């Protein structure tokens, strides 16, 4: 969540978008996705943040 906000300026929720972004970053860092372009489809996430306001 923090990485996406700091580097690209988009907000993710801590469950679905946050986990999918973390998974994609892990695949890139471990070399399982290498040598090409990667498209991450950010489908929102900020709308769900109200459900996690107590975190």
From TrEMBL:
Gene3D superfamilies registered for this protein in UniProt: 3.40.50.1100
SUPFAM superfamilies linked to this entry: Tryptophan synthase beta subunit-like PLP-dependent enzymes (SSF53686)
Entries under InterPro entries matching the protein: TrpB-like_PALP_sf
Name of the protein in its database record: Tryptophan synthase beta subunit-like PLP-dependent enzyme
Phylogenetic classification of the source organism: Eukaryota, Fungi, Dikarya, Ascomycota, Pezizomycotina
